[in-house]
Design a protein that fits this description.
9 helices, five-stranded parallel β-sheet, alpha/beta
């Protein structure tokens, strides 16, 4: 997909994330906005996965370990045609399958996630299975930075390096805020790159909102033959909405009517500015 179309989709999908969270009166707004550009690039420019090939063993795999930010995943999957977008109007309502974490009952979702620290172990197993099958598929997973305190992630990193799973790519949504406080105050990660390299992974820092940089990096995998890839994507919690950016309360905040209207106007202006640049 062309870069201009990716940029347009990111803004449009931010509007949809807010729309469905506002309608449901529930959701993890800040984290969904921080991972949305990553998901946009993965699904529209990198991965070989679609409604047409989802039952094929030859599809790439994506597992969102950061399951509480499922609203962004729902919007991207609906945009790809996995299910009708209007289904999301039932999100978080009684008997709706569109609950607050990914489940396999939703078309396009590989695994139930949300119990933090599970996505990378599952992804590592999928990558090893693909190696044993001599399959050319790639496996991608997105982790939250607060999630890195889970020991199961570090066990999975040892596993993936030991088996030389260079078909595995982990992307860290490094927005540096978690539910109660900045990561640095709760459980410091730095120097995160050196720690992960010491576990035998190839590591790269990227701007998690620079679509061109994301595309070039994720289309050039593995970073090192014989090593799994770890992308540290520096992101902004609440990205795209000025009053939400880097504000802790928007971890799972729901905008009021006034805040919702303000956010939509801000995103509409971003779309107008993009169209002006593209003319």
């Amino acid at each position: 997909m062309q870069l201009e179309e990716l940029k347009r989709k990111s803004i449009e999908n931010r509007k949809k994330v807010l729309q469905y969270i506002y309608h449901a009166k529930a959701g993890h707004t800040g984290g969904s906005l921080s991972i949305l550009d990553i998901l946009n690039v993965l699904y529209n420019d990198v991965m070989n996965v679609s409604p047409e090939n989802f039952d094929s063993n030859d599809r790439d795999r994506f597992i969102q370990s950061k399951g509480h930010s499922v609203e962004a995943l729902y919007v991207v999957l609906a945009d790809k045609g996995f299910f009708p977008e209007e289904d999301l109007l039932t999100m978080c309502q009684y008997n709706s399958p569109y609950i607050g974490h990914p489940t396999k009952s939703i078309p396009g979702i590989e695994q139930n996630t949300g119990g933090l620290g599970h996505g990378l172990p599952i992804s590592s197993g999928a990558a090893l299975a693909a190696k044993k099958d001599n399959s050319a598929i790639k496996v991608f997973t997105v982790l939250g930075d607060g999630e890195m305190a889970e020991g199961s992630n570090w066990e999975a990193m040892m596993f993936a390096a030991h088996y030389k799973l260079d078909n595995l790519c982990t992307i860290l949504d490094y927005n540096k805020l978690q539910i109660t406080a900045p990561n640095a105050d709760v459980m410091g990660l730095e120097p995160i790159d050196q720690k992960i390299e010491a576990f035998g992974w190839a590591v790269k820092h990227v701007d998690g909102h620079n679509l061109e940089e994301l595309s070039k990096t994720l289309n050039s995998l593995p970073l090192v033959e014989g090593k799994p890839t770890f992308i540290i994507a520096h992101t902004t919690k609440g990205k795209g909405i000025s009053y939400m950016e880097n504000v802790l309360k928007w971890h799972h905040g729901v905008p009021s009517e006034e805040q919702y209207d303000s956010a939509m106007k801000e995103l509409d202006l971003q779309l107008q500015e993009l169209e002006t640049v593209l003319k």
